[in-house]
Prior knowledge:
about 60 residues, 2 strands, globular
Amino acid sequence: MKKLLTVIQAAKMLNVHKITLYKLIETKKIPHIRKKGLGIRLDPDQLDKWTKSGEIKSDEYVENY
Length: 65
């Protein structure tokens, strides 16, 4: 089974504040898994793909921050 990251672990991996990551999750701009009893988890492979894909533009990020 693949190890999933907590929000705090993923924020450290992405070098962003956890609140920034929660906003990306809340607006469904970043791939995540929400499991009852586990809370929010993020797949490190999916995060890597997401960062390389450039799905979010800096202008869009600033508007939503």
